[in-house]
Write a structure and sequence with these properties.
With 96 residues, the chain is mainly β. 11% of the residues lie in helices and 31% in strands. The longest helix has 11 residues. The chain is elongated, with a radius of gyration of 18 Å. It starts with a strand and ends with a strand.
Length: 96
């Protein structure tokens, strides 16, 4: 797994992989009480939370320092490449 030029362990887990819905929906009532539903596909902004644990996801201090340097760069868009996960393969990524 790579985040820009930084190699990350392949045993990181994507813990919120199935928590995201690709469709935004807003439900409201009109003045007459009629139900109004608006739907739209989300184009961007899927969260990806990677975690390790006691036995996985260990990195060196140098890797942590590289990641911290990325965090401190405002508006930086990075590429996240999964080597073992099915979908999606490439993502434009920012820290939030």
């Amino acid at each position: 797994m790579m985040l820009d030029h930084i190699e990350l362990p392949d045993d990181l887990l994507w813990v919120d992989e199935f928590d995201w819905n690709p469709v935004a929906q807003d439900i409201d009532r009109s003045l007459t009480g009629a139900l109004m539903v608006q739907e739209q596909a989300k184009l961007y902004g899927r969260p990806i939370t990677l975690t390790g644990g006691d036995e996985a996801g260990w990195v060196t201090r140098a890797t942590i320092l590289e990641l911290m340097a990325l965090v401190e760069t405002p508006n930086r868009v990075m590429t996240l490449i999964f080597s073992t996960l099915e979908l999606p393969k490439n993502n434009s990524t920012i820290f939030i």
